[in-house]
Each structure stands twice: as structure tokens, then as C-alpha cells.
Design brief:
Elements (H helix, E strand, L loop, with lengths): L7 H7 L15 H6 L2 H8 L6 E5 L2 H8 L9 H11 L9 H9 L7 H13 L4 E4 L21 H10 L1 H9 L19 E6 L8 E7 L2 E7 L12 H16 L8 E6 L8 E6 L12 H6 L8 H9 L1 E2 L2 E2 L10 H12 L17 H6 L7 E3 L23 H7 L5 H24 L4
The structure holds adenosine-5'-triphosphate and magnesium ion.
Protein name: Cell division cycle protein 123
Family: Belongs to the CDC123 family.
InterPro entries: CDC123
Length: 438
Amino acid sequence: MDSHPPSDSESDSDDETTTPQTLAFPPVTRQHILNCSYHSWYPKYKPITPKSRLIPLTSPFLDYLRADSIILPDDDVDQQQQTEWDSDSGIFSKDEDEASDDDDVDILSGWHDLHATIGATIAELGGKVMPKLNWSAPKDATWMNANTMECRTPNEIYLLLKSSDFVTHDLEHAFDDTEALAEQRKAEDIPFHLVLRKSFQMNPSMEFRCFVRGRKLLALCQRDLNHFDFLAPMQHKLSSLIQQFFDVRLRDSFEDENFVFDCYVPAPYTRVWLVDVNPWAPRTDPLLFSWMEILGIPEPMGGGEDEEDLSREEVEGEFVRLKMADPTKDPRVAEALRLAREDAAKDALLDIASLSSMSEDDEVEEDFSGLPELRLVGKNDPEAWSFNTPKYSAHKLPRDVVDASQSGEGLREFAREWEAVLEKRRREDVEGGSSGEE
Ligand SMILES: Nc1ncnc2c1ncn2[C@@H]1O[C@H](COP(=O)(O)OP(=O)(O)OP(=O)(O)O)[C@@H](O)[C@H]1O
Ligand SMILES: [Mg+2]
């Protein structure tokens, strides 16, 4: 779930001096929020979702996640790292007393089995996973983990989850802003799950957020806020592909009429994966749109029976085939893709400029009328100026802590260091508060 602070576009919409209207959302129900939880939709959409595992969470683990302190359980690997690293005189040096304090406490009390299951699941998924809770991934806490959400050990997962405000939102505020009565908003009834997704190299330019109202795909946009030259010539083909995917896979089967889904189009751009489902609510970031704009989009035409039957014929195996010409059949595109693939390091920034030479004839042959708008980041859009800078600047931290997080010196030591910073801040807050200073 998007638990970020309101996006700029939302704040703009709230500003009554510039935008006099109010956001006309239908009431957000508790059930809608639950329907968007990974554990609710994943079983149904498993064949079209990247490989994931759901681990039900127990109260002792949830208590651990909710606790302020960031103490990580000991494990053999970390113990080894600690021993190796203690021989240096780095910033994580700790004295004997400190060590024995931590080691006396059984952090895993009540969730030894869960810890083991998490470790085994990481191994089952190939050793690298992307974690999230029911709605949110810890995207705001990646500085804790060498700037990635990819985790190889349970401790890396705990550190990310415990450091993320987005995850805290799942734990404490999932039903905020719903029409549920106060007593129905309690988190106790939520079947919390840890979602572990097998990590794979995703090309950020091919991730899209799609807005569905009244079971119609209204509009879609890039998820990554960088400009990619090669997307514009593919724009219609992509929205047609995603429209077909939606018609066949989601339109009639998702519980609610209104929702926002995220999808991924892997090369060679003939199929679509479902990545996430988000609530039709202000808490979901509309990215390149504003909610005001989306709520104002008129009902699109189409979506009749014939169209549905046609689309269903296109289902092949576990994904939807592109009905139109495969862009990779164009030798120039194929060559660009081959070159791009040769250098895996370039994957995330595929500069397949020759895609822009995709034949104009394709555009003429195919009828793209009636497709929803796929909005892209333009070359000169302000969004594109933040190329490669951290997105969640609110979470910027002292330099030494960030360096420590990336040093690979051992997570438990890093957690201790971070704990010390938090403690210092708490003390300063108390002192500042008692002296009446800001
Ligand atoms: N299996 C995977 N392998 C690699 N990266 C992944 C995988 N699944 C998701 N990601 C990356 O993680 C990002 C965040 O995932 P996800 O959309 O589930 O988080 P979220 O918290 O729901 O985000 P939002 O708040 O925008 O809805 C995705 O945009 C994608 O870049
Ligand atoms: Mg989401």
C-alpha cells in the first residue's frame, strides 16, 4: 500500500486556492483494502504474478516488528561476520558488556520456527528475495541494505521491515481513511503475511501503474519517474498489450470495480506480469497523474462481449500474447535488444534508442483508437530531473550511518550503530522538548 506522504499532485489538489474542487472518491471500505492485500489476490493471480511465497505472521513476530529497538537475532553467518569484523577497529567496535547484554536476550522467543521458515523460503526462491508485507514494500529503507530491497538473509529482511515507515503504515494504519467504524479498524484482525518474491532483474522503464474505474482501464503511466527515449514509439503497443491483459485477466475477476494495478512488461514485450494491486484511494500515489485528473476522466468506450472473446483467444499458457506485430521482429529492434542484453549492467537503463526507429507503418496498420492514455515522463519533465537520486529524501540519514549500512560489516553491528543514533535522537528530543526549544 502506498503509505507515503501525499504526492505533490495530491497536495496541489488539496490547495483550495488553485483547485477549488474536492476529490470525489467513493467511500473506501475496509473490504476493499483487504482485497488489495497480497494474500487476498495472489492465490487467484498466481499464474500471472512473479514467483512469490506468503508466510503468515505470528503475534510474537509482529511484536518484534513493532518494537522501537532494532536488535537483530544472532545467526551463524552474522556471528562469523562479527568475529571477523571485531578484529578491525571500525566504527562498529563493541565492548564485551554490550555483547553479553544482547546475547542474553532471545530475540527469537516465540518465533524460532518462523525465522527458520523465512530462511528456508529464501533458499527455495534462489537465495535472493524482495520482501513486503500485505500492502507495502520497504522502499523507503533501502539505504539500510546497500540501496537495494533485495535480501539474502532473514536479518536483512528484518532490518528493512523494521526501518520502513511504509511497513509501519501496514502494521498500524491499514484501515485509516476507510469508512470502517473505529472498532473495525483494529490491526488485530488483519491476517498479516510476509511476502517473499523471487528477485529478478526488472527493467524499471517497463513497470506501469494502471487505473481502473468501473471495470474500465482509464489510464496508465510509467512507475519509474525517469525519461526513457525508447518508450514513446512503443506507447500505443504497450497500452494495447496492457489493455488486453486487463480485459482477459483482471477486468471481471477482481473483487472490486475500482482499483489500481501495477504491471511489468518483460522483453520481448509480448506478455504482462501483475506486480501489485493498490486501493482506489488517495493513499495510492497517482504518479504522473493527479487524482483530480483521474477522477475526471470520462468513461471510455468499448469493453463489449466481442472484444472479450477476441482477447480470450489470445491467452497462451500463463500469459497474454500480443495481438499485434511483435516489435522484436523488426531487425533494428532485435539488434538493439541483443546489444542491450549483452551488457547486463545496462539492463536497468536500457538505452535501446533504435526502438525509436520502429516503423511508422506499424502505427498505420494497427488501430489504436479507444486505448487508454499511457502517460510517459517527457525529456524535460521535472520528474526526469531527479534521475538516479534517492526518492525518499525524507529518510536521509547521517553520513556515517549510511556508510555503515553499505559497508557489509555485519548487520547486527550496523543495527547497533543505528540504535545508538536513534537513542541519541530520542534524548535530544526529550531535552529539546523540556527546554522548550524547537
Ligand atoms: N520479484 C521482484 N524482483 C525484483 N524487483 C521487484 C520484484 N517485485 C517487485 N519489485 C520491485 O519493487 C518495487 C516495489 O514493489 P511493490 O510495487 O510491490 O511495492 P509497493 O510498496 O506496493 O509500492 P507502491 O507503494 O508504489 O504501491 C517494484 O516497483 C519493482 O521495481
Ligand atoms: Mg503497491
